[in-house]
Structures are given as C-alpha cells and as structure tokens.
Amino acid sequence: MKRIRLAPSMMCADFIRLKPELDLFAKQKIDFLHIDIMDGHFVPNFTLGPGICRALASYSAIPLDIHLMIENVDSYVAAFAESPGVYLSFHPEAVYHPLRTIDCIRNAGATPGVAIDPATPVDAIRHLIADVELVCVMTVNPGYSGQSLIPQTIDKIGELRDMSERFNHTVLIEVDGNVSWQNIPAMLRAGADVLVLGTSSLYDREASLGANVGRLRTMIAECQSG
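RESULT FIELD:
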C-alpha cells in the first residue's frame, strides 16, 4: 500500500505552543514540516524565513519541506539548504534558468522540487520533472491560507503521475491548498503522495491536533482500502 506523507503547514502553527506541537508531530511520525517562504513580491504576502527554518531543524528531526514563493531564488538557496534532509521547492516562473536552479539546490545539499501554480499547465515542467524529486501542485493561488479549492487543479495530480511514469522517474506529488476533510479523498484518488495540511484539516480548531492526526490516518486508510 502506498505511503501517504503528512506535511503540516507551519504558517498555520501556534507559535506560542510550537514545542508541544513539534513533540506531538514527532510522536505521531509526521513526515515533513512544510514551510512557506513568501517575499511580498512573487506572492502578495510575507511569511517565514531562514531563521525559523534553522530553529525548527535544531529542535526537531522531522525533515523540512521548504516551499520558496520568492524572487531571486538562487541567491537564497544556501540559506535555506543548511539543514540536513531539506526538500527545497521553487516556482519555475520565478527564475530565468530552472535547470540551473535545480543544480544549485542539489549542489547545496538539498533535494530539489518544483511548484506549479493553478494556471500553470503540467506540460510546462515536462523538461524538469526528470531532474526533481518532488512536484508541489498548488490547488489555490499561492499567498494565503484559508482559500477555496480551484477544482480543475485536481486533474493535474493525475497528469503528473502519468508524466512521471512516461519518464520512468518517480516523484513525490504534493498537493497544497485547501487540503480539507472534504477534498482529501479526491486528492488521494488522483494520486497525491504528500498532503500539505492547514486550517481546513489538521489545524481545524474543532478538535485537537492529536485527534485530527488520527482522523487523517483513518481517512487515508479508508481511501486506500475502498
């Protein structure tokens, strides 16, 4: 049975109670800590930076899944690739030479990935997919949490799975944006491997984090068995 990886979105975390949350994630064997980096230029918001990445890596052994929604990507790769086991994804639209940026990430010791906006066709990364280990499918416009799903983005998950098989290169297909209780089954059926979890599921305040992790595990098991 395929392993589905869980990646809490740290921009949704309670920074007053961050250590207990990280301890819970470690106990629950969470796979990644997803960190959105926004610069106010590529997307209309500011979020986390290298400092929080270093702090998280110093406290937790859970690998960092860093999503760069920034311009001048190459200039910041070294700062975000410091920690061991980092996955580092960028938007090809934000750089002049995506293959060079992929090499830059790999040479810095991180695992390269790319992210595609809702309006970016899968075919736009056809010549990149063999060189990355992860593709992040944005199912909302990047920049803010709490947005509604853009329905046609679900089809891109299956398109990416087909493309990776044609190239005989396995990539992790990550889905990011309104990964909700309602939308998760369709995302899994389409072929998602990694779920970026925010306010519409893991950080749903109707229940505790621990209860929500349990609900996610149950939902994944039911989707895979049915």
